[in-house]
Amino acid sequence: MYDIKMFPEFGSTRVSSATAVEIALHEAKAKHIQYQIDLQNKPEWYAPKVNPASKVPAIAYGGPDVPPDQPSPESVKLAESLILVEFIADLYPNSGILPADPVLRAKARFFVDAVSTKFVPRWQALLQGKGPVHDFYEAVEFLQGLLPEEGYAIGPYSLADIAITPFLGRARIALKSDLGGYPRGEGPRVLETLTSGNGRFARIGKYFHDLLERESFKATFDEVSSLVMHTEVVPLLTVALAQGYVTERYKARFADLRK
């Protein structure tokens, strides 16, 4: 029997919020089952029986042992990625996702807020060609200033790290493949600056490396099948990735963007 039934989007590694929940489940070693939702062709039962907002990810918790595509009204339905991550942390307190120490919990939530209000907006602006790399570097430096000398965002691995990891996974793909609205060649240069292990970003470069080498990330982020969507960069743009390279078809779309 599975107490947790998760509903991610089909091909959910393109959705950072779904990846965060999957990482939390992996870290907690939570027994669960998944039913992927195709948002372009949603099952008729999904909105009325799981999430009235018709968004993913969502979780059905408890209730009778039924197939995930037949959700029971007796199970509790929950949504919103960070709420789901904290819910998993509460179910599995020994996972360490949410620290027992109230000071560390506060630090973790402060780091999450910085990711949401500083890092992600500046990254999206850079990716879309609407913000200079200097502004993005300022956000990265702010996060770096929050890091302890060793370990993860607050020392031990926690909610704070889960919140940023999916964005880093997608950013690495975009920068490495030079996909974005920034000038041609800027992506690999930014990636090298952040990950070289030297200079102004040495500490956060080590932090990024440790996050992307963690087993829970590798187990939940499938680079081969993932799709990186940047609909604000090019309307209806979908970037297909496989084995570390991007198909020529989608490279051509970014070439059009840079003309």
From TrEMBL:
It holds the Pfam family GST_N_3. Residues 5-96 form the GST N-terminal domain. Coiled coil: none annotated. This is GST N-terminal domain-containing protein. InterPro entries: Glutathione-S-Trfase_C_sf, Glutathione_S-Trfase, Glutathione_S-Trfase_N, GST_Omega/HSP26, Thioredoxin-like_sf. Gene3D superfamilies: 1.20.1050.10, Glutaredoxin (3.40.30.10). One of its GO terms (cellular component) is cytoplasm. CDD domains: GST_N_family.
